[in-house]
Design goal:
Blueprint (H helix, E strand, L loop, with lengths): L13 E3 L4 E2 L2 H10 L5 H4 L1 H5 L10 H16 L4 E11 L9 E13 L6 E11 L5 E12 L5
Antiparallel strand pairs: 1-4, 2-4, 3-6, 4-5, 5-6
Length: about 150
């Protein structure tokens, strides 16, 4: 199992995730179709040529999902019960087709669950960056994490 148990997290712990991903036009078109989002700013190159960006923007919710997804292998794969929420989500710079995203995660809070003796809550601060190390996405995520099973 790649993910860590609740007890293995501590405040201030930082993960520089090794898996990176280049975003393709197909990713963006598929995601917008799958989520029923027909916004021209994501899909219409002719329309986008007249915007300040001059080209289609990758859907920010795809970016958020990718940033969290790139963190999973090192942190929560197989040891998470559920995401409890995301707050303070920001997109300080746009993502475009061809950008390669990499992620840093910092553990901000660790606390035992009051209702589940087999789990605890870990708050992660995820930061996504493009290939120029420009921050493109940040979010504070709370995850319900399993405790290590008794031996």
């Amino acid at each position: 199992m790649a993910g860590l148990w609740y007890e293995q997290f501590h405040v201030g712990q930082v993960f520089e995730h090794g898996i990176r991903r280049t975003v393709t036009e197909s990713d963006n078109v598929w995601f917008n179709g799958a989520t029923c989002n027909p916004a021209a700013v994501h899909l219409d190159a002719e329309y986008c040529a007249g915007t300040e960006w001059g080209r289609p923007l990758v859907n920010s919710l795809f970016t958020l999902g990718l940033v969290i997804g790139l963190s999973v292998h090192d942190t929560t794969l197989g040891t998470t019960v559920a995401n409890l929420g995301m707050t303070d989500t920001r997109f300080p710079a746009p993502v475009f087709h061809g950008d390669t995203i990499h992620v840093r995660t910092t553990v901000k809070e660790v606390r035992a669950s009051r209702s589940r003796p087999n789990a605890g809550i870990v708050t992660f601060w995820h930061q996504g960056f493009n290939q120029r190390d420009e921050e493109v996405c940040t979010t504070l995520r709370q995850a319900l994490m399993l405790r290590r099973p008794a031996a």
